[in-house]
Amino acid sequence: MNWKDPSYVVGYLFNDDGTEVALILKDHPAEQVGKLNGIGGRIERLEDSQMAMIREFEEETGVTVMDMVTKATELWQQTIYLQGPDWKVLYYRAFSTVLIEHLKAKTEWPTSEPVVVVPVKDLPKNIFSHVDWTVAISVAPGIRFPFRVDDGTKVE
What we know:
alpha+beta; Nucleoside Triphosphate Pyrophosphohydrolase; 8-stranded mixed β-sheet
């Protein structure tokens, strides 16, 4: 299948038992200012979605996963696939208490958007529109991934 741009990745890093999640406090684009979202961004040309997730996580957190836990390609698992008429978003999840604790201890970020760790069962009110249900699906037991949602529009 041929996809139109733009295409994005969004990742949720959870602690090992899935009770905490790392989110990023957005200062752009306008509709996300002041809201928490998953860590991610645009898939660049000649990059697959997993490569984009690894790159975006490093760019936005300043953490190189391979230095902390395991091979980055083994850490991130695709969970949700959202599609609209001219976009797609691929969601990923990862579990690492080591990384979560490292992010909690950080005080400086490579961008103007800080990363915060919050409890999954008590997500703050200032979350972006999709975060509550995509986080819930990402940690729900028994779901076969990737979980696909589309608006029924044929993309050529």
